[in-house]
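Quick note —
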Amino acid sequence: MLDRDREWRTLNQFLAADDPHLRIGLLSGRRRHGKSFLLRALTERAGGLYLTAVREEGRVSASRRATDAIAAYAGLPDASLEIGDWERILATALDQVAERAAVPLLVIDELPYLLEHSPEIPGILQKLYDDSRSGVGRPVRGRIILCGSAMSVMHELLSGTQPLRGRAAMDMRLAAFGYRAARRLWAIEDPAVALRVHATLGGAPGYRQLVATGTPDTESGFDTWVIDNLLSPDIGVFTRTETEYLLREDPRITRRTLYYDVLTALARGASSPSKIGGLIGRERTALSHPLDVLESSGYVVKEEDVLRGRHTSIKLVDPVIRFNQLVTVPRADLIDRGRADQAWHTSSATFRSKILGPHFEELARQWTGSHLSEVLPGLEPGAIGTTVVPDPAARTSHEVDVVALDLDSRPRQPGARIRLLGEAKATIERRGPHDLARLEHLRTLLSAQGYDTEGAVLTLFSLAGFHGDLMRTASERPDVLLVDLATLYWS
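Predicted structure written out below.
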């Protein structure tokens, strides 16, 4: 098990809590994040019962699958149990784990599939939970973990007047691996290659098992690896097929053409409803619902400017979908004709500017939050994000890739103390003194606008490295920090 210490500890604490009554927990996360792997390991450790639903099954088949699993767990012959309704199925499952398990654990994986034909299950769980604590009826005890990939469905379980609201002791949302853990997962030594793999597949561990040609170890090998895997319709990580799977996880995504159009606009850099609408020919008011769905599904995030109010940027954060919309879909005809190599080579400029560049910027912000203090002890940043700095004298404005505030400053607070200003560049050119001069100018502008920039560290992140004169300057100035790929991955 890799990089799941916190999650594993939380799950075991949920099981071990000193509570004789029924406890309910939720585990959600995007497809291929490793939820089932984690829960199967937990179930095996506890000696519990693991039930899983299948999308294609209806009510009768699903209840039959569940009762057969209970019978097998109890050591009974197949089809020996006849239980007609979900209340009895769940109560029987809990009775069995209470009798047989070291820790009475019942896991229901892919719950959203069951809810499509059996929406009464949350209400039944509410009744079992309430009866357990009130002593009414036959007491049940144990632990139930409900799991699913349809993020919006799982989050809805605890909202508003839903039956399980206020009854879940755990609501864990399993994220992808961070970029450093993903490098270890793929066993990639070269950080330039690790960055490229992470920019295409992110940190979802499930993709590691699906690739056909192992792990790339050089940048040229990465090109071959993309062609043989991400652009091959016969392979499990073909991004067009995977994107279809991802979008099907959310039952609210029915008009997929509209969603694909929105995702493509976001991948191309549109960051507001009006800009998205302009690209796809839709009124901005018609985009509120699809954007909300994509956000609740975890594919899109809305980020506010860390310094200025009323400036929200919408970003596509799923690397697989971004790669699909920018590389695979525009060259689908070439790929279908068996010319994946040509499709990839003609996408090189798009990959660097629209995929690698934004991804490098995001990793720079993640590094600032997680590893800056390793390089500059004592500098523990608070809120981290981006901003746009007005430059009235030049009649323009400047985008800043990385802004870190002091721990005691709130985002968009007048006079906030800025601890770091940074620029991240994934171009092939090394960065030089002119890049530092730009950051110095931005620091001056922000100071004139009332922000506290005293002691702010000017930080340059570069994929290609730095010119010697800039490196000499950085060695002489404590307010200048240079972060290359090696620092990004190993500090």
